[in-house]
Amino acid sequence: MTYRVLIAQFMHETNTFSKLPTTLDDYRRRWLIEGEAMVPRFTGTRNEIGGYIDAVKKYGWQPVWAGAANATPSGKLTRECWETIRDMIVAAARKAGKLDGICLSLHGAMVTETEDDAEGALLELLRGVVGPDVPIVATLDLHANATVRMARNANALVSYRTYPHIDGHERATQAAALIEEAMAGRKKPRCLLVQPAMLQGADAGRTTQPGLMRDLLARADGYEREPGINVVSIQAGFTWADIPVTGPSVAVSHEPAAETRARAIARELIDEIWKRRDESSSDYRSVADGVAAARAGAGKKGPLVIADGTDNPGGGGYNDTTPLLQALIDAGVGNVAFGTIYDPATVQQAMKAGVGAEIDVALGGHTDVSMGAPVKARAIVKMLSDGFFRNDGPMNAGVETQMGPTAVLRIGGIDVVTISSRIQTIDLQVFLSQGIDPTTKSVLVVKSVQHFRAAYAPIAREIVLVDSGGICSPDIHKLKFTKLRRPIWPFDGVNDPYAGQRT
């Protein structure tokens, strides 16, 4: 029997504290693809859509390609943006007629002007179209603020198990295998979710070193080998979202007879997250410490990688804060490549001047001057490009990235990759595509907090994570929550992780 399966992607990690609304143009800058055009774009890639494309070939499904949409993290989606992409997917489901299954690629932390739980709303609409018996699976980012509404309307929530997220293809493969079993009647998966009274937990999901998240995932692997347990997903949550459901959670997909065991598994994992809630492997240092490390490492083999973690575009950072860049300039640090600064106006200035020209720039610092004023300097235009490249991996290998019109500006001994579309620096091609060999630099600056490690840790002599005062500050007490459920740890005197439990 040939099964008709709808496949769609709608992803966004929403930082509700950002002043930048997310529009349809923001999706177009990364990708906003309707219908079957998503297939050539992602065939052979290592992300979730690539995984679903491979599943279609493996199982012989008749696919209904609804579309794929993904935008760089920023503020809430505008109503127009949310409804346009939502309706594209829901309309495809309605138009398809009989469907045997639905495979989705979601993030799990999308917030819009009208929906605090956008993925839950989308899943609910799709469930309304296909009815209660058609299986729906969704892959999620492990930083999802997952909800009971999502679990109620999906048969499985399959979250990443790596951070950096290098297993998108594998998670889609896992989700597709389960939905094949469900469509064939060999399984009848149901999903439940437990969320504790915690704003943060599970060491923010970090998996690049031994610790809490790896321990949790090892237990999840064991649980998945038990009869009746299909998928055990651990979501660390995305802190920078002022919504009621922000925080870690555990989702378990199970067979009907295993519901009691599934709920016990979720509680066992929550208990471990609670018990070890103070564990953290992050080590933010000051900008001055980062500059000192850069100066001390002059002449050493391999680059020092300085991660400007609080201006991480992957968490909604503005990508144009300047304290670290200014400090490196002031210290006279040389042989540096800085990736990246978002400044479309300065890129246009460089393009008008041409390669080799010297120009006076006011670089970066245009979104919020409280996070660093523009850098005023004399710069040499070293290279101009369209900013397009294809990721080498490990993360999102084969996926196209568009930085928009791009200029490499040399200020003193620093080559600054200056871009027109905000991106997180996760791939070496951010530099290689612009004529910069990162392995020859003494210092590399990346606008990222963790994902950069997949590509940059293998070439780094040392990594330093700095807090430059950006919007993604690790100090959650600076954030003004108004919608967050209470009581909650660490703000309130909570002694029970299940206070106000959401299941």
What does it look like?
With 503 residues, the chain is an alpha/beta fold. It contains 14 helices and 20 strands. It has a nine-stranded mixed beta sheet. A six-stranded mixed beta sheet has the order 2-3-1-4-5-6, with helices on both faces. Strand 17 and strand 18 form a beta hairpin. Helix 3 runs parallel beside helix 7 and helix 10 runs parallel beside helix 11. The two termini are 36 Å apart. The mean pLDDT is 97.
List the helices and strands and how they pair.
Blueprint: E1 4-11, H1 24-30, E2 31-34, H2 38-42, H3 48-59, E3 62-70, H4 79-96, E4 101-106, H5 118-130, E5 136-140, H6 148-153, E6 156-159, H7 168-183, E7 190-194, H8 212-224, E8 229-235, E9 249-254, H9 259-275, E10 284-285, H10 287-296, E11 304-308, H11 323-331, E12 336-342, H12 344-353, E13 358-363, E14 375-385, E15 388-390, E16 400-402, E17 406-411, E18 414-419, H13 429-432, E19 443-446, H14 453-456, E20 462-466
Summarize the structure.
With 503 residues, this protein is α/β, with parallel strands linked by helices. The protein has helices at residues 24-30, 38-42, 48-59, 79-96, 118-130, 148-153, 168-183, 212-224, 259-275, 287-296, 323-331, 344-353, 429-432, 453-456; strands at residues 4-11, 31-34, 62-70, 101-106, 136-140, 156-159, 190-194, 229-235, 249-254, 284-285, 304-308, 336-342, 358-363, 375-385, 388-390, 400-402, 406-411, 414-419, 443-446, 462-466.
